[in-house]
Specification:
By secondary structure, the protein is mainly alpha-helical. It is built from six helices and two strands; from the N terminus they run H-H-E-E-H-H-H-H. Helix 1 packs across helix 2. It is elongated and about 65 Å long.
C-alpha cells in the first residue's frame, strides 16, 4: 500500500486540480480522508482509486448524480452487471440526444453564416435573419 499523501500530491498524481478533490469530498463522492494532527488531509490508496473512478466518469460526461449512483452501487458491492449496463445505456441515450440537438443547431446556424458577407459595415444579414 502506498504511503498516505496530501491533497496537492494526489492532485499532481492524478493530474487534476486540488479544488476538484475538495469538491468531490464536499459532495461525498469520495470517502473523507483521515487528518494529521495539524489538520492536513491524508489520502490513501482507497481515496486515490475512488478519485480515479470519479475523474474517469466525469471525463465521460457523467453528472454528479449519476456518479453518486454508480459509486454507491460499487462501494456497496451490491450491484449486477445488468444494473451497470442500464446506467451506461441511459447515459448514452442522453449523449445521443445532445448530439441530435447539436446537429439541429448546426443546421440552423450554417445557413445564417452563409448569408453573411463579412464586411466592415453594420449591415449584417445574420442579425436581420435573427
Amino acid at each position: 500500500m502506498r504511503e498516505a499523501m496530501k491533497r496537492g500530491a494526489v492532485a499532481r498524481l492524478l493530474d487534476c486540480n486540488a479544488e476538484t478533490i475538495r469538491y468531490y469530498e464536499s459532495v461525498q463522492l469520495i470517502p473523507e480522508p483521515d487528518r494529521t494532527v495539524s489538520g492536513h488531509r491524508l489520502y490513501d490508496t482507497r481515496h486515490i482509486d475512488a478519485l480515479r473512478f470519479v475523474l474517469r466518469l466525469r471525463s465521460l460526461g457523467f453528472s454528479i448524480d449519476e456518479i453518486r449512483s454508480l459509486t454507491t452501487m460499487v462501494d456497496s458491492g451490491n450491484y449486477t452487471c445488468g444494473q451497470i449496463a442500464r446506467t451506461i445505456e441511459a447515459h448514452l441515450k442522453t449523449i445521443r440526444q445532445k448530439i441530435e440537438d447539436l446537429k439541429k443547431l448546426e443546421s440552423a446556424l450554417t445557413p445564417l453564416l452563409a448569408q453573411c458577407h463579412r464586411g466592415d459595415t453594420p449591415d449584417c444579414a445574420i442579425i436581420k435573419a435573427l
